[in-house]
Each structure stands twice: as C-alpha cells, then as structure tokens.
Amino acid sequence: MKLKVCGMKYQDNIKQVASLQPDYLGFIFYKNSARNFDTESIPELPKSIKKTGVFVDADIDVVIDKIKRHGLKAVQLHGKESPNYCKELQSKNIEIFKVFSIKDEFDFSVLKPYEGIVDYFLFDTKGKQPGGNGYTFDWSVLNNYPSTTPFFLSGGIGLNQIEDIKKFQQSEASKYCYALDINSKFEIEPGLKNIEDLKKFKQIPAFAGMTEIMNYNVNEKGYYGEFGGAFIPEMLYPNVEELRQNYLKVMTEPDFKNEFDQLLKDYVGRPSPLYFAKRLSEKYNTKIYLKREDLNHTGAHKINNTIGQILMAKRLAKTRIIAETGAGQHGVATATVCALMGLECIVYMGEIDIARQAPNVARMKMLGAKVVPALSGSRTLKDATNEAIRDWINNPVNTHYIIGSAIGPHPYPDMVTRFQAVISEEIKWQLKEQENRENPDYIVACIGGGSNAAGTYYHYLHELDVSIIAVEAAGLGVDSGESAATSVLGKEGIIHGCKTLLMQTNDGQITEPYSISAGLDYPGVGPMHAHLCKTKRAEFLSITDDEAMKAGLELCKLEGIIPAIESSHALAIFEQKTFKPDDVIVVSLSGRGDKDLENYIDYFKI
Amino acid sequence: MNRINQKLKEDKKLLSIYFTAGYPNINDTVSIIQDLEKNGVDMIEIGLPFSDPLADGPTIQASSTQALKNGMTTEVLFNQLKDIRKSVSIPLIIMGYFNPMFQYGVEAFCKKCQELGIDGLIIPDLPVDVYHEHYQEIFEKYGLINVFLITPQTSDERIRYIDSISNGFIYMVSSASTTGAQSGFGNVQTDYFKRIAQMDLKNPQIIGFGISNNETFTQATKYAKGAIIGSAFVKHVTKHGAKSVDAFVKHILD
Fold first, then answer.
1. N or C: which end of chain B has fewer CB within 10 A?
2. Domains A2-207 and A270-298+421-604 equal at CATH topology level
C-alpha cells in the first residue's frame, strides 16, 4: 500500500518527512485550515514523492495556478467539486482525488458520475470540518464498495489503528485500497509532523515492500538484486570496461538522442502502433492491446537495439561489428544497421541454425554481412554467442560486439534494455490517448534472453499497479526434457558473462534448451528477468509449442496479423489465464511471422 | 609453504603444462600427471572441462567437449585425484570456468582441493574484483593460490591491482587471443614482455597462450619466470595418445 502524509506546512519538517520516502505529500490550500500552506515555495523533494495540493471548492484558476507554481502531481478535492470541474483538470497531467466523507453509512451511487474522470477516490470521516476531524469511520462500510477505482483511506488514522489496519487488509473492503492517508494523529502541533511516530508507522506490514523500496533497475555495480555482474575473462575486460564507462554518458548526449530518435522515426517507422485487438478481446472477454513491434523495419523489435548500438559503436570509434544470432533476426537487424552506417559486419550463427534459417542467411549476405558458422558444441545460438565472444577477445581494439538480447556482462543487459525501453515509453502515451490511463492492468511479453520483454516492462517496473507477465517457451512441455522454461528448469549460475538463472546439469554444465521458436531457444534468461522472477515482481508462465502455434493461427484468423512464433507464446496466455472484462492488457507483439511461414506450414500441414 | 611458491623460488625457468582432465580417455588423468612430472615438467594445470569455455580456442574446446562426453565431472575428477599426492610432488593447479565451481559450492570446492593437495586455481571468468570482494578469504582459508590473467591490453594500474591481490604468479596472456598455438612471437609481443618485466611486480610472471615449441618457450622465458603450454600439448595427445608425454616434453625442453 502507498502512503500519503497530508497537511505539510514547515520547510524543515517537510524535508524530514520527505526523507522517509512517503509516496505523496499533501499541501492544503484552504484558508480556514490550521494547516493552510501559505509559504512561497515547497522545498525540493525526491522525484518519487508526488506533491499533492488539497483544495476545498477553490476557483479552478487558483487550482491551475498552484499546479503550475508548485509542480503539483496530484490534486485532492474536498468540496462539492462537480464531475465537470474534475474533467477540466484532466488535461493538466495530474492525478485527481475526489474526497467523500463517510459517517456510519454511505450511498455509493454518488461516486458514479466521477468514474473514469478521477484517478482515485479518498474516503475520510464525516465531521464538522472538511477533513482533519481526527477520528476514524467504520471501515466495514467499504465492504460494499461497488467500484474498481482505487481509493485512499483517510480520517484519523494513527498508531492506535495498526491492528485495525492489519484486519482491514485481510478484509474484502481493502481490495481496492491503494493508499493510507495520514495527518493529525502524527502531529506535535497542526502542520508539524512527529518524525519518530511516522517512522514507527512506516514499519507496519501494510507498507512492506515500500519501506525498502525495491529497485528493479541495475545498480552501479551492474547487478539486479543478486543477478548480473560481469563474469568475463580478463581478455575482455578493457572492451567491456570501455563500454561501461561510456554507455550512459553517450546515451544521454543530446546529439546521440536526436540521432537515435530520428532513425527510429524515419528508418524504423516508430512509433509502432498500439492496436486494440477488438475481435481477440471479444473472444476472451477482456481488453487486449497489441504493441505492434512486428511493424518495425526488419520485422521485429530487434532493430531498436541495433540502431542504438551501432550509434554507440560509432561514438566509440569502432570500425568492425560482430554479432551472434539464433534464428537470424538479430543477425539481419545487425547487418541492416551496418549497411546503413557502412561498417564491416560479421555474424556468428550455429551451423544447424544456418541450415534451418536459409532466408535470413541470404538476407544477411545481401546486406553485406559475412555469416560465420559456429561449429563447436551444439552448433546453435549458445555456441554462436561463444564464437562471437571469442572473436571479440581476438579483436579487442577496433571491434564492437552488438549483443542482441538483454544478457551478457554488465553493461549489456542495461544498455539493451534502455534501447528497447522505447517500447514502454510509447505504450504509456498511447494508452493514455486511447484509455485515458498510462498504466495497463497487465503487461505481457515473451522471454528468451528477454530483450523485447525488458523494453516492454521498463517504464512499468516500479508501477506496482501494473502486473507483469513473462511468457517462456515450454517446448514439448516443461517436464518433457525438451523445453526452454528457464525460470522453472534453471538454477542460479553464470552464462555468457552474467550471473542469472540458467538451465544446467548438477555439475554446472550448460544444457541445450528446446523450443519450436528459435528466438526463445536459449538456456538462460536476462539478469533483470531473473530478478523479477525471484522477487515475484513478474509472474512467469510457460507455453508449449502447440499452445503457441494455435494462438498464432488464431491471431491470423481474428485480427489478420501473422505473428512470429515467439510472440505467439505471449498470445497463448489467454487460454491459460482468465482476465476480467475491464482489465486492460498490453501484449508485446515482438515480431512478424514471415520468417516462420515454413514452420507454420509444416505444423498445420497448410 | 605452498608448493607453487616453493617452485617459483627455484633458480630455473619453469615449464608448466595444461591438459584437459578425462581426455583423450576418462582414465588418462592420473597417468598424464605422473608422466609429466617424470619427464621434468615443473607445474601442471589440470583442466576441468566446461561446456562453454569462452576463453579457449577450438583445440581445448573440442577436448573439453570430448572429456564431458567421456563422463568427466567435478566429482569424477576429485575421485581420480584422491591419491595423487602419493605419487606426485610438483605443484598442481586446477584450471576451469566458474560455473561448475559455483554449482559445487565455492567453499566445498576449495576445501576438497586442499584435501587432495591442489595448490592453486585458475578461473578465467572469475574477475579479480569479484574474487577480492567475495572469495579471497575462502581461498586463503584453504591455502589455495588464485592465479589471475593479464593481457597486452591490461592497463598498468590494473596490473598493479592484480599484483597486489596475487600471492603466487601472474599468468601473462601473450597476445589478444583465445588459447591455441600461433606461429612465433613478433615485436609487439616482445615489447609487451619487456614492458611487464620492467614493472618489477611483486609476483613472478608466467607466459601462456601461443607457446607450442622450443623456440616460443625460449622467447617467452627470456622475459618471464616460465611458460605454460596448453593447446599444443592437447593436440599432441589427440594425435599420439596419452602415453606419448615424454616425446612432447623432450621436444620443448631440447
């Protein structure tokens, strides 16, 4: 649950409370309140804290002025503000809370006109004043809460309510309770908060997971929790270190950003549409949006990363590019950007994959790349990766290695994720346009190494109201011995330079995965995803070949879109998991199915 | 004193040989070690095979793949080495990748090494800073010397850092490459050998990668305490079998 501390007044006290990292800090702009905030400015606060302005039937221009002046991220409306009044504030890019006061009973029908307009309801105790009466109402009234709009629970909450909060959390009434709002019970005098009491309150289980704010991003040492790092031979250290020291610096240069954005727009064709799949939604009785990465140039999300990395390579004055590829998608995306930039390109590809992906091999060659067969080990993606790494060891100065997935030694997983993050960046504004909300209820992507998933999740990692679903390839079945479901079958270990979950023997030898989809046929998973799995931030599902193929064909028939078999895995979850009719689910359609035609033909005897 | 440190004190250039345990046949491990010592080799790196040996070229990768097919595992190797100290007295080092050790348990692995009389470890994909932070204490507790690699690209500052963490010798990779014989050393290598020799490091250096015959051995040991031969030896036993150790060593030292 989130925490809002309301009625802030004094500068030093504001800073002290902010250091406890509540989610919201409330500033009351109401002359009749003892906590009226009449100071010129609010001190600088951590970005994670949303400044909330509290108003009682204020003139709307006053509200807009305060939003601008103080950079408010939310407004809380305590008076008789109408739905139209709230509507006018919608364009201000803020969260809107409408307050309702409850005594012993409450007529919930009054909420209805505000549904879809305000972001949250806030329930406090009906008393003499508009808020701040200092005692609680009977929370069981909320057992009859008819809405799914999340709400703030407010009114006289103090340290004495800790037991009640525990009970409340176990009751039906708390289902849509988003945050607790506290004020007068934590004061030395009106507007002056008692830091020690606030600290005690933050320890309660309701805020577990918030007190130590879980970080799903990489830390300064290259780890996601216990996963990641750079387990590389010394021969690779200078190359990886050069990249580590430069990647963030380069990525934030305005010139770099402009060139990257421009190419994504003009060359790749971004933004990729966020498409409401109407017939698919009808079939599964829920709201399904598809993020159309399949419409990118070269037919998949892979190009987002190769564009980014080729620009990086140029900034680092590299003249020779190497890459690994499984099915050939990343190889084609790399060969494409090398042609675009006029750089030498060598793609390592398992001998077996070369035989079964002839069209992509031809594409790479047409684009001017040299395709080198990996002849060692199992002669598939894992070995192609080994060969590319060996090439890099042998050519440490002039060569950049474009890794195609969110794997490898730090900084690769983070760099690839950041280049792919354009996916979730777009979803946010696209969903806001179409659904008037940035956050879906679920975000879904298939995972091999996990680059499309990393980009699809990135801007939602810390938005805990968004459930993350990761879909792995179960192959012939998780227990069949022919599977690539790393989160189930894998153990912690080291593969291709990072600590993560990987499929291996008891003796620590890396084993061969299996999936009908070459892009998911990898024995490891990116370290960020291993962390999401371990912390349970993401739910991992496994989909068999058969389930994926059927889901792929279904999308063809219902929506006229032929998906890549990788993406079909993500689509197959609707047969496995039931969603509510008003759930908004965004599925990353990571690639198109042209490359898989032969597979589809064989499978369905078309 | 650790056998490695003792050996490094000897007034001679050291020949160290790497071979892949369980190759060409699963039970060749012990006899190869014994024959190497008998023929005058100073130190041995026993290669614990790994499915994905990133720092190795095709020869050692192929021998590793075959050894795994032969049934080599960490447990099998430890069993084979059970009585090794009854017949062999030169320093023995296990060289392998980190994941198999990590799965065995780093501390359990080190403890077992001490029991068997192993003197040191070379783990190419365990970076010096991770070792320093997490594992140095464990290695030292069990009296194991961990050997780090440096390359022509390693900065002086990092070489000093590696030297400060090391307590045996430094494994000098001769050129930017994976393992596997090349034809002789050029000026670039000799300049690098000289540069390192002039740094006056605390730990002696032993040069590896690209040493395959008497000529390259002599060139390398002109600037360093010794040299390590791997791929060339593995190639030799591939061709001539495990019983041909004497001919190979003779050809290097003559």
1. C
2. no
pLDDT at A131: 67
Residue B230 banded pLDDT, cuts 50, 70, 90: very high
Looking at residues A492-505, what average pLDDT do you find? 96
Look at the block and give the residue holding tokens 């994926």.
A548
Cβ–Cβ gap B124/A233 under 8 Å: yes
Exposed e or buried b for every residue in A449-484, given b needs 16+ CB within 10 A?
Answer: bbbbbbbbbbbbbeebebbbbbbbbbbeebeeebbb
ipTM: 0.95
What would the pLDDT profile of A294-339 be if each residue is shown by its tens digit?
999 999 999 999 999 999 999 999 999 999 998 899 999 999 999 9
| Closest Cβ opposite residue B102 in set A382, A493, A510 | A493
Which of these CATH numbers, 3.30.2320.80, 3.30.1490.20, 3.40.50.1100, 3.30.2140.20, describes A226-267+299-414?
3.40.50.1100
Comparing CA positions, the residue from A598, A586, A585, A590 lying closest to residue A569 is A590
The domain limits of chain A are 2-207, 226-267+299-414, 270-298+421-604
- Looking at A13-130, which runs of residues are DSSP E strands? 24-28, 50-55, 74-77, 95-102, 120-125
The answer to whether B55 contacts A233, with C-beta atoms less than 8 Å apart, is: yes
Model confidence over A536-576: pLDDT tens digits? 899 999 999 999 999 999 999 999 999 999 999 999 999 99
Helical spans, DSSP H, in A342-482: 351-356, 358-366, 381-394, 412-420, 422-435, 451-457
Better-predicted residue by pLDDT, B48 or A144? B48
Burial bucket for residue A80 (CB in 10 Å: 0-12, 13-18, 19+): exposed
On average, the pLDDT of chain A sits at 93
Number of domains in chain B: 1
Q: Prior bond to B24 cis, omega within 30? A: yes
| B53, B99, B149 member nearest A508 (Cβ) | B99
Q: Give percent above pLDDT 90 in chain A.
A: 76
The predicted pLDDT at position A211 comes to 38
- At the fourth CATH level, which superfamily is domain A2-207? Aldolase class I (3.20.20.70)
Q: How confident is the model at residue A214 (pLDDT cuts 50, 70, 90)?
A: low
Q: Quickly list H helices, A436-534.
A: 451-457, 486-489, 527-534
* Domain boundaries, position B121: 3-7+13-253
Structure tokens at A294: 């399949």
Q: Which residues on adjacent β-strands are paired with residue A28?
A: A36, A54
Element at B248 (helix H, strand E): helix B245-253
Question: Up-side HSE of residue A301: CA atoms within 13 Å toward CB?
Answer: 34
Residue B42 has pLDDT above 70, yes or no: yes
- Above 60 in pLDDT, residue A359? yes
Is B125 within 8 Å of chain A by CB?
A: yes
Question: A232 CA to chain B: closest CA distance, Å?
Answer: 5
pTM, whole model, 2 decimals?
Answer: 0.77
Answer yes or no: is pLDDT of A180 > 70.
yes
List of chain B residues whose C-beta atoms are within 8 Å of the C-beta of residue A390: 54, 57, 178
Decide: A136 and A156 in contact? Cβ < 8 Å: yes
Residues of B designated catalytic = 45, 56
Among the four given CATH numbers 3.90.1720.10, 3.40.640.10, 3.40.50.150, 3.40.50.1100, the one describing domain A270-298+421-604:
3.40.50.1100
Residues A503, A504, A505: CA angle, nearest 5 degrees: 145
